[in-house]
Every structure is written in structure tokens, then in C-alpha cells.
């Protein structure tokens, strides 16, 4: 592991100069220094000074070409300065003291030592000097370099104190372990398990922020295992923790849905799935525990878990303070449809079944297929290979039907308005029934989704019901 070195960027000399003029010792600190050592890209540079961070930011701003505007966050005593290469964040060194029942720290000005001591982990408590006498020298009071080398997440102080002061740090420990593929040092780990209940005083937004960072990592399953083993998951997302476990009656055992879900999640990541596809993976079997039943002759069933799970999605998103728009509706759709493609493997695949799936999935068909392929997990290698091969046939069929019928963005040509006008009907159940009947015929492949043909079919349906057409030709 190389000692981190300040990059060749005149910016750092400029900050040093401004700090010197103000008489403030100043340091680059935290994640940026850690990422330099790890040779990891990093866009935010945190600068700490023993003095007024806002004043320093303004002084630096005046020295930079183009004099960028400083954004001041008065409540936090921090200031942000955008530059061409990186975003600079300035803060005065501080010490914190917490009262047991409050999550709002009392913040007081402090020394560099005190500022390092209130940091979450040793690997985040590294600083590089911007002072003339030792410009660029590393300050490492808590053996952060050793922990980077050994790939260990450890708190600088007694972990019970660090976690109790700000319980979000427990989530951050898991998050950094997952992002960096590090271990959590045993005393730190035990302290998380001991202090887990304190997570309840942290806002859901902050928790979900860290959770999403875990999910965005290259191997999110590792983070979820840590969350589960420390007991945090049971508190922040109990429905997911309920997936854990295997029940057995006689020779009938079902698979552990927690580990299955994590496998599907990692598979989705490997296939390039974005955050929302990853959420779909996490939630695809979420209602299995609630729908689980045992039948002596059949074994375990989870009948309807896809529909129940889909119905739960808005509630889960609300609880976790995830956005309730388009992304949520996509996740909900994928949960609802996640069994459909795989069902096509077992049957002889008819064009009609494929058409129906394309119609329901619409633009999300590729995401659905990705999720469904990721859902094929079996310890039996041969069985898995067979399933994957058959699944490939379904994908092929899907492409074939799609290129023929363009059902992905399917808009039925026979709308309610067309029907009402054709037969002089008012909005009614009958109109809905006729519309569905035409749609069924199109999806069955009996009629093409083309106005003339579909309209002719509509008239036939009307005739059978004794409905005379009023305006048979106006829509051609
Ligand atoms: P990244 O930006 O990649 O998420 P980071 O380490 O820069 O990682 P930030 O959340 O940006 O993390 O925080 C910057 C630094 O501030 C951290 O490196 C750490 O030293 C400190 N820090 C942030 N949040 C906390 C916290 N809750 N408790 C203690 N120190 C913290
Ligand atoms: Mg950062």
C-alpha cells in the first residue's frame, strides 16, 4: 500500500496559501485521502482547518480563476466550492459531545486531533497536511494505513462510543465493508450487534441512503449478510429478514429464500442491472413467507406470492422513503410478472402466451427477462443448465414474436370510443366487455392489431349480441 500523495493539482497549493494567510492549519481529510491510498476515483475533497471553514472557503474562492461562488451551509458550519476538477468542502475542525437521548451533537470548535477522533472509521481518519512546514505529509493517528492494508473496518475510539454517538455509523460500517470488500474488525462488529437498537433514532432517509450504497456495490449480498448477522436488517427491513430460514416436514424442505434472494441480487448485478432492477431482485420473493403453505402430498407452496409481493411494493417503498414514481411502478410490475417467463419454459410455448407476456411487460420486457434469468438458481448444476437452455429458447421466441407483431408498445386500435361510436353506446360494462374480447382475439392471434381487421371483428361480435352498427365506416 502506497502512502497517499496529494495529486499534482495547483488547487492544493492555493488552499495552503489561503489557509496560511488566515493563520489556519489546514488538512485534506477523510474519504479523499482513503481513496488516494486505494487508488480509487474520488470527486469530493474534504478540507478541515483549525479555524473558520467558511472563511477559508471564501478566501480560496477569491484566489481561483473565475472566482467560483461559495455555497455556505450555515447550520452545519460548512462551505462548498465547485472547481473544474473536484468539489471542495470546507469545515472547521470540531469536537462533538452527545447527550444520550439526542441524536443532535453539540458541536464545538476543536483541534485536528479531536476532529480525527470523532470520525467514523480509522480508514476515514487520515489527513494530508496543507501546512508550509510539512506540506503533503500524512497524519495517521489511528493506524488507518494498517487497516487499509489489512482490509479492516474499525472505529478510531471504543466502538460502543462511536456507534452510540451516531448509530448511522453502524450502517456505514457495513456499507464501507461492502464497497471495499473489507472485514469488520471483531470488536467493532460485536459493538454493532450490541448497539443495533440505537439505529431507531436515525432518520429513514439516512438509513436508506446507506442501504442504496450497499445495493449499488459490486457484491451487495455481502452487505446484506452482515446486516442480517448483526441484527440490523431485522430492524431496518424486517420483511426481508423473514425470508431467512428453512422449514422441513418429513423429506420436504423448501429452499432458504433469504440466500436465494441474495443470489438473484448478485446475479442481477453481474448482468448489469441498475439500482431499481436490484430492488426488484430484492423484492421478487418478498411475500413468500406470508404465502407459504404445506400440503402433505405436494410439499411447500408459495401460491400467489408474486401478486401479494407486488401489492406490498408501494408500502415498502413508502416505509423505506424510496421514490414513489416510475421506478416503483417498474419494480412492482417486475415482481408481479417474475414467474411468467419461466412458466413458458415448462409449457410448449405458444405464440399467444408470448404475445400476452410482451403486452403486459411492455417496455420492461428486457428487464423482466434479465430478472427471470437471474432467478434461475439451483445447486443442481445440470438442472440449472437445462433450465437456462430452455430459457434461451423462450428468449428467442420472444424476439421472433416481437419482431413480427411489435407488441412491446402495443396500443389496441379498438378503443372504448370507437366501440361507443360504432354501436351508439354510452359508457357501460358492455363497452368494456367488447373491448376485452377484441383484445383477447388480438393476443390470441385470431385477429391482427390493425384497424380494418379488428373493426370487422368488432362488428361480428356486435352482431352476435344483436347490436346493429351505427357508424360502421367512420373510423377507417
Ligand atoms: P463516499 O463519499 O465515497 O461515500 P466518504 O468517506 O467520503 O465516502 P462521506 O459520507 O462523504 O464519506 O464523509 C466524508 C468523511 O466524513 C468520511 O470519510 C468520514 O471521515 C467523515 N464522516 C462522514 N459521516 C460520518 C459520520 N456519520 N460519523 C463520523 N464521521 C463521518
Ligand atoms: Mg465523500
Automatic annotation (TrEMBL):
<dbReference type="InterPro" id="IPR032828">
    <property type="entry name" value="PolyA_RNA-bd"/>
</dbReference>
<keyword id="KW-0460">Magnesium</keyword>
<dbReference type="InterPro" id="IPR003607">
    <property type="entry name" value="HD/PDEase_dom"/>
</dbReference>
<dbReference type="Pfam" id="PF01743">
    <property type="entry name" value="PolyA_pol"/>
</dbReference>
<dbReference type="InterPro" id="IPR002646">
    <property type="entry name" value="PolA_pol_head_dom"/>
</dbReference>
<protein>
    <submittedName>
        <fullName>CCA tRNA nucleotidyltransferase</fullName>
    </submittedName>
</protein>
<dbReference type="Pfam" id="PF12627">
    <property type="entry name" value="PolyA_pol_RNAbd"/>
</dbReference>
<keyword id="KW-0547">Nucleotide-binding</keyword>
<keyword id="KW-0548">Nucleotidyltransferase</keyword>
<keyword id="KW-0808">Transferase</keyword>
<keyword id="KW-0479">Metal-binding</keyword>
<comment type="similarity">
    <text>Belongs to the tRNA nucleotidyltransferase/poly(A) polymerase family.</text>
</comment>
<keyword id="KW-0692">RNA repair</keyword>
<dbReference type="InterPro" id="IPR006674">
    <property type="entry name" value="HD_domain"/>
</dbReference>
<keyword id="KW-0819">tRNA processing</keyword>
<dbReference type="Pfam" id="PF01966">
    <property type="entry name" value="HD"/>
</dbReference>
<dbReference type="InterPro" id="IPR043519">
    <property type="entry name" value="NT_sf"/>
</dbReference>
<dbReference type="InterPro" id="IPR050124">
    <property type="entry name" value="tRNA_CCA-adding_enzyme"/>
</dbReference>
<dbReference type="InterPro" id="IPR006675">
    <property type="entry name" value="HDIG_dom"/>
</dbReference>
<keyword id="KW-0694">RNA-binding</keyword>
<keyword id="KW-0067">ATP-binding</keyword>
<feature type="domain" description="HD/PDEase">
    <location>
        <begin position="253"/>
        <end position="377"/>
    </location>
</feature>
Amino acid at each position: 500500500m502506497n502512502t497517499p500523495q496529494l495529486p499534482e493539482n495547483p488547487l492544493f497549493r492555493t488552499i495552503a496559501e489561503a489557509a496560511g494567510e488566515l493563520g489556519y492549519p489546514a488538512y485534506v481529510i477523510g474519504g479523499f485521502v482513503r481513496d488516494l491510498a486505494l487508488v480509487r476515483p474520488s470527486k469530493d475533497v474534504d478540507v478541515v482547518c483549525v479555524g473558520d471553514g467558511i472563511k477559508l472557503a471564501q478566501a480560496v474562492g477569491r484566489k481561483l480563476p473565475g472566482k467560483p461562488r461559495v455555497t455556505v451551509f450555515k447550520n452545519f458550519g460548512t462551505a462548498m466550492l465547485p472547481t473544474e476538477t473536484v468539489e471542495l468542502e470546507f469545515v472547521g475542525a470540531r469536537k462533538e459531545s452527545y447527550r444520550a437521548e439526542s441524536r443532535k451533537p453539540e458541536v464545538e470548535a476543536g483541534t485536528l486531533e479531536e476532529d480525527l477522533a470523532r470520525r467514523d472509521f480509522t480508514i476515514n481518519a487520515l489527513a494530508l497536511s496543507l501546512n508550509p512546514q510539512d506540506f503533503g505529509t500524512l497524519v495517521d493517528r489511528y493506524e488507518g494505513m494498517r487497516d487499509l492494508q489489512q482490509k479492516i473496518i474499525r472505529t478510531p475510539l471504543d466502538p460502543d462510543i462511536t456507534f452510540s454517538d451516531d448509530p448511522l455509523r453502524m450502517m456505514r460500517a457495513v456499507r464501507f465493508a461492502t464497497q471495499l470488500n473489507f472485514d469488520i474488525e471483531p470488536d467493532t462488529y460485536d459493538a454493532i450487534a450490541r448497539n443495533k437498537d440505537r439505529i431507531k433514532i436515525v432518520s429513514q432517509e439516512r438509513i436508506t441512503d446507506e442501504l442504496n450504497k450497499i445495493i449499488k456495490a459490486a457484491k451487495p449480498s455481502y452487505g446484506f449478510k452482515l446486516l442480517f448477522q448483526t441484527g440490523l436488517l431485522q430492524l431496518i427491513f424486517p420483511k426481508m429478514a423473514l425470508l431467512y430460514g428453512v422449514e422441513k416436514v418429513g423429506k420436504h424442505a423448501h429452499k432458504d429464500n433469504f440466500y436465494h434472494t441474495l443470489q438473484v441480487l448478485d446475479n442481477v448485478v453481474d448482468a448489469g442491472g441498475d439500482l431499481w432492477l436490484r430492488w426488484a431482485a430484492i423484492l421478487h420473493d418478498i411475500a413468500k413467507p406470508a404465502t407459504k403453505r404445506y400440503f402433505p402430498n405436494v410439499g411447500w407452496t408459495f401460491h400467489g406470492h408474486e401478486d401479494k409481493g407486488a401489492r406490498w411494493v408501494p408500502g415498502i417503498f413508502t416505509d423505506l422513503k424510496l421514490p414513489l414514481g416510475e421506478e416503483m411502478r417498474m419494480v412492482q410490475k417486475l415482481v408481479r410478472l417474475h414467474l411468467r417467463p419461466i412458466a413458458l419454459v415448462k409449457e410448449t410455448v405458444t405464440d399467444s402466451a408470448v404475445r400476452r407476456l410482451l403486452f403486459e411487460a411492455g417496455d420492461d420486457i428486457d428487464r423482466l427477462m434479465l430478472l427471470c434469468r437471474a432467478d434461475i438458481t439451483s445447486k443442481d448444476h445440470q438442472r440449472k443448465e437445462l433450465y437456462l437452455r430452455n430459457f434461451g429458447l423462450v428468449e428467442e421466441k420472444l424476439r421472433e414474436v416481437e419482431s413480427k407483431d411489435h407488441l412491446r408498445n402495443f396500443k389496441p386500435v379498438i378503443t372504448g370510443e370507437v366501440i361507443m361510436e360504432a354501436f351508439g353506446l354510452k359508457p357501460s360494462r358492455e363497452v368494456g366487455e367488447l373491448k376485452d374480447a377484441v383484445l383477447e382475439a388480438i393476443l390470441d392471434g385470431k385477429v391482427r392489431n390493425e384497424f380494418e381487421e379488428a373493426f370487422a371483428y368488432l362488428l361480428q361480435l356486435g352482431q352476435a349480441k344483436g347490436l346493429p352498427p351505427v357508424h360502421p365506416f367512420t373510423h377507417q
